[in-house]
Write a structure and sequence with these properties.
This is DUF3618 domain-containing protein. Keywords: Membrane, Transmembrane, Transmembrane helix. The chain crosses the membrane at residues 60-81. Helix 2 crosses helix 3 (59-85). The chain is mostly helical. It is elongated and about 65 Å long. Helix content is 76%, strand content 0%. It has helices at 19-38, 40-57, 59-85. The chain has a domain at 41-85.
């Protein structure tokens, strides 16, 4: 069973004739996809890399986004604190 080097880890190669090998390949791809989605540190690392790339391309936009996120989080914390204090 030859595997194309271009395929991502979570893909099933075309041309698998044997039903058992096909089922194994599909199961392996499904388990790898679940592991990719469930691996929080890896997802955070990917998000951090995308954020750094965005900040390099558009530093003013990144600062604006950071200020906006801080304002939203501050508003949520303020609303929760106010509702608890009443």
């Amino acid at each position: 069973m030859a595997v194309d080097a271009e395929l991502p880890r979570t893909a099933v190669a075309n041309g698998i004739v044997d039903p058992v090998a096909s089922a194994r390949a599909e199961l392996k791809a499904a388990l790898l996809a679940i592991e990719e989605k469930g691996n929080v540190p890896r997802q955070l690392q990917k998000a951090g890399g995308r954020a750094r790339a965005y900040a390099r391309r558009n530093p003013v936009g990144a600062v604006g986004l950071a200020v906006g996120v801080a304002a939203v989080v501050g508003g949520i914390v303020w609303a929760l604190a106010r509702s608890i204090s009443r």
